[in-house]
Amino acid sequence: MIHEDRRTRDFICDRSQGTRHGIVIDPAEQSPDIAAKRAIAAVSAGTKLILVGGSSDTDSTNVHDTIVAIKEGLELVTWASSQDSDMDENDWKIPIILFPQGAASLSPAADAITFMMLMNSTDPRFLIEEQISGAPYIRKAGIEPISMGYVICSPGGRAGEVGKAKLLEPNEIDRAASYALTAEMYGFDMLYLEAGSGAEKPVNSDLIKSARDATDLTLIVGGGIRDGVTAKKVAKAGADWIITGNLVEEFEDASELEKTLSEFITKMID
Ligand code: 1GP
After folding, report:
1. Separation between Cα atoms, residue 215 and residue 192, nearest integer Å
2. Do residues 81 and 43 lie in contact, with contact meaning Cβ atoms separated by under 8 Å?
3. Residues 63-84: pLDDT tens digits?
4. What is d(CA 97, CA 123) in angstroms, rounded to the nearest whole number?
5. 66: closest CA among 106, 103, 113, 8?
6. pLDDT tens readout for residues 13-64
7. Domain boundaries of the chain, sorted by first residue
8. pLDDT of amino acid 222
C-alpha cells in the first residue's frame, strides 16, 4: 500500500510556487535547542523547508532530539501567531524532513523523508542497501517517503567522500541529463544536485539547465550557495529549491540570521 498521506510531497513538488528556499540542519553541528532557534529564524525569513541530516556523525538520538526541538519551537510560534491577527499561522507550518546519511539516522517525529538513491555512488550501500534496511522502519513509523535521486557534483565535499560518489564534473552536461531522465524513469519525485556542503562554488549552471531541460521533476540544488545573487543564478538555471546549510550554522544570533536570510531570499526571487 502506498503511503496515503502525500501532503508533504505535494507541497514540495508544487512547481507553480517558483523557486523556494530550504535549510539543512546537521544534528551533529549544533544542539537541538540552537537548531530550533535557527529554524524559527529561517522560517520567519521565508524559508519553506527544513531538512535534517548530515553526511556523518548523525544517529537516531541526535536526529530525533533535533527534530522534536524544531517541531516544538515551530508549534509554539504557530500557536502564538494564531492569537495575533497580524500573523498568518500557516506561514509557520513548514515540513521537517529527514535527509538521512543512512538507515541508522531516522526519527518517527519527521513529517517525511527524502527516500533517496545516491545515483552516482560506486557503493551498493548508498544505491540500495541502506534503503532496504530503512524501509520497514519508515513504513512502521508512518513517515511519508518522498523518492529522490541524489547526484553529487564536483567538488562533492564530505558527502562525495562518504557516499563514494563518481562525481559529476562541470563539463558532463549530457550525463546530468541522463541522471535526470533516469530519476524520472524510476518514478522518483525529485532530483537533488549536490555540490557538497561548504563547496567553493555551487553546482555548475549548465548542469542544472541540462537536468532541467531533460525532465519536469522537482529540482533541488545545494552546496556552496552563500548569497542571494548566487542563489538567483541557480534559480534561473532551473532549481525549484535552493538549500543552504553552512550559512545558517554561522550565526549565533537569531535576529542576525533572520536578517541575512531575508536578504538572501529577497535577492533570490528578485
Ligand atoms: C546541502 O550541502 C548542502 O545540500 C548545504 O551546503 O553548507 O554549502 O550550504 P552548504
Report:
1. 13
2. no
3. 999 999 999 999 999 888 888 7
4. 24
5. 106
6. 999 999 999 999 999 999 999 999 999 999 999 999 999 998 888 889 999 9
7. 17-269
8. 98
CA-proximal residue: ligand 1, atom 3 (nearest): 223
The CATH number of 17-269 is 3.20.20.390
Report the predicted TM-score, pTM, of the whole model to 2 decimal places. 0.96
Instruction: Give me the residues paired with residue 22 across strands.
Output: 49, 243
Quickly tell me which residue has 492569537 as its cell: 83
- For ligand 1, atom 1, which residue shows the shortest CA distance? 222
Atom of ligand 1 nearest to the CA of 244: 9
Confidence of residue 89 (pLDDT cuts 50, 70, 90): confident
Average pLDDT of the chain, as a whole number: 95
Ligand 1 atom closest to 246 (CA): 7
Rounded CA-CA distance 134/145 in Å is 11
Ligand 1 center from residue 226 Cα (angstroms): 9
- The CA distance from 212 to 236, in Å, is 10
Show the ligand 1 pocket: residues with CB < 6 angstroms: 24, 194, 196-199, 222-225, 243-247
| Three-state SS letters, the chain | CCCCCCHHHHHHCCHHHCCEEEEEECCCCCCHHHHHHHHHHHHHHCCCEEEECCCCCCCHHHHHHHHHHHHHHHHHHHHHHHCCCCCCHHHHCCCEEECCCCCCCCCCCCCEEEEEEECCECCHHHHHHHHHHHHHHHHHHCCEEEEEEEEEECCCHHHHHHCCECCECCCCHHHHHHHHHHHHHHCCCEEEEECCCCCCCCCCHHHHHHHHHHCCCEEEEECCCCCHHHHHHHHHHCCCEEEECHHHHCCCCHHHHHHHHHHHHHHHHC
Cell of 94: 513548514
